[in-house]
Amino acid sequence: MNDNNLARYRLWPSAIAGLLLILDYIFLSIFNIRIIHRMEILILLILLAPVFYNAVIEFKENPFSIDTLMVIASVSATLLGAIHEAILILILFNLSEYLEEKTTDKLRNAAYEISKMIPKKVLKIENGRILETDVEKLDIGDIILVKLGQRIPVDGEVILGESSIDVSTLTGEPIPIDVSPGSKVLSGSINLTNSIHIRVLKPFKDSTISRIIKLVVESHERKAKIERFIDRFSSIYTPIVVILATLTVVIPVLIFSMPLKVWAYRALILLVLACPSAFIISTPITYFVGLVRAMKSGIIVKGSIYLETLSNVKAMAFDKTGTLTKNKLVVSRIVTLNNFDEKEILKIAATLESHSNHPIALAIVEKAKKENIDFPSEITVKEIPGMGLKALIPNMGEAIVGSLKMMEVNDVKIDNKVRKILENLRKAILVALNKRLIGIIELEDEIKESAINLADKLRSIGIRHIIMITGDHEKAAKEIAEKVGITEFYANLLPEEKVKIVEELKKKYEVVSMVGDGINDAPALAVSDVGIAMGTAGNDIAIESADVAIMSDDLRRIPYLIKLSKKVQRTLKINLIFTFFMKIILMLLGFLGLIPLFVAVLGDDGLTLVVIANTIPILKYLEETS
User: Fold this and answer.
1) Candidate list 24, 319, 472, 517, residue with the active-site label
2) DSSP 251
């Protein structure tokens, strides 16, 4: 019998039996007639069947399961002459279990919501014909047609058409991105504007969306410390309460000669309350909801243990290049010399650099285009690898763009004043015309907008120690650190030196998280308590290497993730404390004979439902957008 059939079997017999009990009470009160007379045992057996089935299935793994305890309680109540109460507690138990199973299934299925959005059928282009086929039958190299409004089923490359695609499912970013031939696209994205042809780069099972869902499901298996503690606690708690229930009968009856029926009934109440289901379910459900909420914001947390650890992080270390910065050079300043203005210097530099694909060249050309500077392209440029470029520009003369060494090799005079200027610049390109230096172009790695207030946001949520570690030189590191509000930084580090720094930080601050790009910083990410890789959408290595993979480059996801982890921990503590004290109160009331058996059933399964109800709001915990 599968879980869905068992859930249905719990629901309908219980609903019908409940209706019969109500009618029996009404007819007995008004007409003094019993409508279920002589049917009680049959009703009891029908209601007991799913409970007994589960008890047998689970007995080897857990002899003190709630189903086993309910079988004992209902049979014992019947033997004590309280068959109507036995029926009532089975009705309440089955209905509560049905609600719990359906609610829990709904939460578990949240991780699969995205995969259900992916079309099972796709349009494959073969020999000029469009054929419908199963998405799982696509092979690398196949061409598919994705129409307006459809989700992209597999990772691929656009080969025909231009469109905008919504990647919020993967990255949490609300702004669509434009794609054209040559653009890589990821499964799960929505095609917004035009039909496009895509070449399949990965089969469905290896595509981004499938990997994300697999990681989220697997992450549920990596238990947090508190989750393992609750498992151990439950294995001790239940036998102790069962022993107490037994003593509740033995001591009053055998020692004090008190009524067996009274104390056996009270023992049954303790027996029902002995089930630790609310304890057991509260931890995995709370963490799983947190993991799913993170996934919906484009954050893959690889286990509840990392969600728990994040809530206790005392310090965060950030790589600079590609993490706090865009890893994209931009022109920050132009120093003018020998009566040349900035536009003239930029025009000469862009004329030569337009013939190179070096990141510095791309930055200079982009700056010239932004300034609407026209520069000739029909010239012959000679490149000296690692040094610079030189060329003859019509009506101007010989131009040279490059490093200090490039100038010296080509006999361009560099005076002490210029050398002093260069000492204070991080990354600079010199521009010369006819053996005379005319300007210096300074470049810098552009800081991400989301990095500007990052340190303040982290401090506001309790992360007091924020550190930057980078392989860049100290001056560049200091400037970036100052701009983003970081006071502690380490520069000129090799990968193995970054590892040593993180290990030292762990000794100093106990719980440390490292944030990097997931590839170059993999060793440092690995030794930290929680390694967070940024901008990992479509990057298999980064997704696999980190404990947490943030699909977008938006650093605002990090304080949100920390706050989410803290919210999950708060919710879990509330659930556990509330459950523990309610169990104690109900046990005391039951021992004193102040509550009937069906209240104990409501108390046990009701607590489980309260735990779930208190946890569900985490799914609606939204991140900051500013």
Assistant:
1) 319
2) I
Judged against a pLDDT cut of 90, whether residue 555 lies above it is answered with yes
Mean per-residue pLDDT over the chain, rounded: 84
Distance (Å, whole) CA 409 – CA 405: 6
DSSP letter, residue 449: G
- Residue 208 tokens read as 């981004």
Alpha-carbon gap, residue 624 to 493, rounded angstroms: 33
pLDDT of residue 61: 76
d(CA 289, CA 274): 26
pLDDT at 310: 95
**Nearest C-alpha neighbor of 526 from the set 550, 503, 557:** 503
Query: Which token pair is 475?
Result: 């001056």
Q: Is 172 left (phi over 0), alpha (psi -120 to 50) or beta?
A: left
Q: Around 338, how many Cα atoms within 13 Å sit in the side-chain half-sphere?
A: 16
Is the whole-model pTM more than 0.70? yes
Do the beta carbons of residue 623 and residue 550 sit within 8 Å?
no
Rounded to whole angstroms, the Cα distance separating 123 from 102 reads 36
Euclidean distance between CA atoms 426 and 332, whole angstroms: 11
167-170's contacts with Cβ under 8 Å and 24+ in sequence apart are: 167/537, 168/298, 169/114, 169/117, 169/209, 170/208, 170/209, 170/212, 170/298, 170/537, 170/551
pLDDT single digits (tens) 487-517: 999 988 877 788 899 999 999 999 999 998 7
For the cut 90, the answer to whether the pLDDT of residue 63 exceeds it is: no
pLDDT at residue 346, rounded to an integer: 94
Write the pLDDT tens digit of every residue in 170-186: 665 556 788 899 999 98
Taking only the tens place, the pLDDT of each residue in 588-620 is 998 998 988 888 877 777 888 888 889 989 988
SS3 for 588-617 is: HHHHCCCCCHHHHHHHHHHHHHHHHHHHHH
Number of C-beta neighbours around residue 153 at 10 A: 27
CA angle 252, 256, 258 (to 5 degrees): 60
Confidence check: pLDDT of 537 > 70: no
Q: Which two tokens stand for residue 552?
A: 């977008």
Q: Which residues pair with 437 in a beta bridge?
A: 432
Q: Is 146 exposed, middle or buried (0-12, 13-18, 19+ CB in 10 A)?
A: buried
Phi, psi of 155 (to 5 degrees): -70, 135
d(C-alpha 593, C-alpha 224), whole Å: 39
**How many CB atoms are located within 10 Å of the residue 494 CB?**
9
- Interhelix angle for 3-30 vs 83-109, to 10°? 140
Helix 225-250 vs helix 557-591: angle between axes, to the nearest 10 degrees? 0
Local structure of residue 340 (DSSP, 8 states) = -
The pair phi, psi for residue 428, each rounded to 5°, is -135, 150
506 vs 510: CA distance, rounded Å: 5
DSSP three-state, residue 167: coil
Do residues 548 and 532 touch, judged by C-beta distance below 8 A? Answer: yes
Residue, of 535 and 577, whose pLDDT is higher:
577
| Whole-number Å distance between alpha carbons of 237 and 268 | 16
**Who's near 487: CB < 8 A, 6+ residues apart?**
466, 481
d(CA 558, CA 451): 10
The answer to whether 521 is a known catalytic residue is no
Task: Indicate the residue type of 387.
Answer: M
Nearest-10 crossing angle of helices 260-273, 66-79: 160
Helix ranges restricted to H, 461-516:
474-484, 495-509
Specify the amino acid at residue 414.
I
